[in-house]
Amino acid sequence: MLHFAAIRLLWAFLTVALVVTFAFVVLRLSGDPAVSIMGNDASAEAMAAFRREWGLNDPIWQQYLSYVSALFRGEFGMSMRGGGAAMDLVLSRIPATLALTLPALCIKLVIGIPAGMYAALHRKTPVDRFVMVAAVGGHTIPSFVLGLILVQLFSIWLGWMPTGGAGGWLHPVLPVLTLGIGGAAVLARFVRSAMLEVLGQPYIRAASARGIPWGAVIRGHALPNAATPTVTIVGFLVGNLIAGAVVVESVFSWPGIGNLLVVSVTARDLTVVQCILILITIAMVLSNLTVDLLCGILDPRLRDESGGY
Length: 309
Prior knowledge:
By secondary structure, the chain is mainly α. It has helices at about 1-30, 35-40, 45-55, 60-70, 85-90, 95-120, 125-140, 145-155, 175-200, 200-210, 215-250, 255-265, 270-300, 300-305.
């Protein structure tokens, strides 16, 4: 198990390193931040002074080495646009993002898993068909379109919810629903498929033939064997929550990390963008790492295949 965990940790570190490198290079090659931040009316002297201050005149490899060296010292730089510590600015937005993503994850789990299980246990019934139609609809509608539909229905037509922003307890309702519905649909379809595959296995038929009550067969044999693929898709959905927050926070003007990322990219505030990408990458890598370790615990065969023993 230790070897299995060490391999996964190594891959996690390499993934973060590759993302940091790729983001740094692409951001530096995509344009001059001095023009975006200083404006077209700034003098040539002011532009030159800005580039010198931020080391933009240095070769890109030298900028990269300086940046990585600062990262190892725990320094993430200052915001090019606001002047404050970039990481402090990003961390100040995390509570707002968590206020959306954590309830949305709960919605995905509470709706998606029971719906998928119920549909699998009642295959080819009207309930199964309804769940699958709803799941396909929720999965195929883009999050920004779903958000606009919810705003049109609950904010404009019914007048029950605010259209965006943050303040009262009603403000996060529509963003949370937008994030949660699509993930619940994906999870319901996946859980249904996993349960149907398990229910079709010979050991399920053998257990039922021995006279074991059907409920005990489901609890003792079907659910444990369907847990591994379910944990995998849940880990994927956690990472998808982070990516979806970028779109949803922009649609609803929610003051979280996603909204800050869009604003910073538009303003070419490279240090803030890099901080956000690093945190998002670490969060997604930790999510995948946790899933790998859980799957290794649930299914020892995965540890054997990875050289765990």
